[in-house]
Design a protein that fits this description.
Distance between the termini: 20 Å
Number of domains: 1
Number of strands: 5
Shape: globular
Radius of gyration: 13 Å
Number of helices: 2
Helix content: 10-25%
Strand order of the largest sheet: 4-3-2-1-5
Length: 84
Amino acid sequence: MATRIRLQRMGRKKKPYYRVVVTNSEAGASAGYIESLGSYRAIASGDEEELKLNEERVEHWLGCGAQPSDTVKDLFSKAGLSKA
């Protein structure tokens, strides 16, 4: 089973909020996810954090061979995760 780490859109219209999730790459976008690794607010307001990650679980999944999408790879590098 090939796994991917990608974003799952949540929130309302014009107020995007994303979950960083691990999914089966062969399943469709609506098939659900294996595990949620954190969240990303594209439009953070005030003192809200833009990116929240469970770094221990991210490292676990990267060690297991999960491939991050291009956008998630950019977010990981912004967060200072070395393997991404």
